[in-house]
Design goal:
Elements lengths: L6 E9 L2 H12 L4 E8 L4 H15 L5 E5 L2 H7 L3 E5 L1 H11 L4 E5 L4 H10 L3 E4 L13 H14 L4 E5 L4 H7 L4 E4 L10 H13 L5
Parallel strand pairs: 1-2, 1-8, 2-3, 3-4, 4-5, 5-6, 6-7, 7-8
Helix pairs in contact: 1-2, 1-8, 4-5
């Protein structure tokens, strides 16, 4: 997932009905250059979770977009996902043996720069800053703190960094930090104009960031 240019990274809401979501994500993927989709899964038994992952993987991967699972590292290989996104250093290190060397291990839920350095040393494939706190979609780190950490990461860490944008207007600010990827969260799927139009707007903002 190492980019040659800044790209978008989409995060789904927790899914329990992949059939209803299929057309929406297909339309969103068609609107821009998407690097990855982070699939969040509503609780269910393992067989149902595997079916949900495979259904979304069939849509996402045929476009050459990486499909990552939010947690559930143990399901990634069995369901054909490209990797997993782990929140916190403990979750990351616990999942590395399951994911490596064939799959992506992303690190989120990082509380400090020190956490980001630990994730890099452990073997994470990317670090993410600014995502909402677990279970609290409306609460996330302050934007300025996220921007500062992204600038630090882009300058000092060797691995890619993902910056979370809370709406399409924040995409430009996140891109200005030098972040390799800009994540669009679950808010994307509730936009009045529709997710596809919101992705197109985000891609426009990504293509012409204001110079630092």
């Amino acid at each position: 997932m190492t980019p040659t240019r800044q790209r978008l990274y989409l995060i789904t809401p927790p899914l329990d009905d992949t059939a209803a979501f299929a057309a929406e994500i297909e339309a969103a993927l068609a609107m821009a250059d998407i690097a990855a989709v982070l699939l969040r899964l509503a609780e269910a038994d393992e067989r149902i979770l595997l079916d949900r992952v495979r259904a979304i993987a069939a849509i996402v991967q045929r476009r050459d977009v990486a499909l990552l699972l939010d947690g559930h590292a143990e399901l990634a290989a069995r369901a054909g996902a490209d990797g997993a996104h782990l929140r916190g250093i403990e979750a990351l290190t616990a999942a590395l043996a399951t994911l490596k060397p064939d799959r992506i291990a992303g690190a989120g839920g990082l509380r400090s720069r020190h956490d980001a350095m630990l994730a890099a040393e452990a073997g994470a494939d990317y670090v993410m800053f600014g995502e909402p706190y677990p279970g609290e979609e409306d609460r996330r780190p302050p934007l300025q703190e996220t921007l500062e950490r992204l600038e630090w990461s882009a300058e000092l860490l060797q691995l890619p960094c993902v910056g979370y944008a809370g709406d399409t207007d924040e995409v430009t600010a996140v891109a200005r930090t030098g972040a390799d990827f800009v994540a669009l969260g679950a808010w994307l799927w509730n936009e009045p104009q529709g997710a596809a139009a919101a992705v197109a707007a985000a891609a426009q903002n990504l293509a012409a960031p204001v110079p630092r």
